[in-house]
């Protein structure tokens, strides 16, 4: 039996991010604002090829574009 998050095309990390966002949004105003600030982060990555670092990219932007591309492929 496949997990629901896997069947829907999500990675486990993306599934956890969605679940965390849902929990944060369900909190009352004060604790929600604190939790949302803790949840914000800016991760960057770069691919290395032949011992040289490639362009730094935002992980959030790359995830969003990958999810949009995956969604458009599913509609075809």
From TrEMBL:
Single GO term (MF): proton-transporting ATP synthase activity, rotational mechanism
A GO cellular component annotation in the UniProt record: proton-transporting ATP synthase complex
Pfam families: ATP-synt_Eps
Region (Disordered): 47-76
The organism's place on the tree of life at top rank: Eukaryota
Coiled coil: none
InterPro entries: ATP_synth_F1_esu_mt, ATP_synth_F1_esu_sf_mt
An annotated GO BP: proton motive force-driven mitochondrial ATP synthesis
Biased composition (Polar residues): 56-66
Similarity remark: Belongs to the eukaryotic ATPase epsilon family.
Xref: PANTHER family: ATP SYNTHASE EPSILON CHAIN, MITOCHONDRIAL, ATP SYNTHASE SUBUNIT EPSILON, MITOCHONDRIAL
Protein's name in the database: Mitochondrial ATP synthase epsilon chain domain-containing protein
Organism encoding this protein: Cladonia borealis
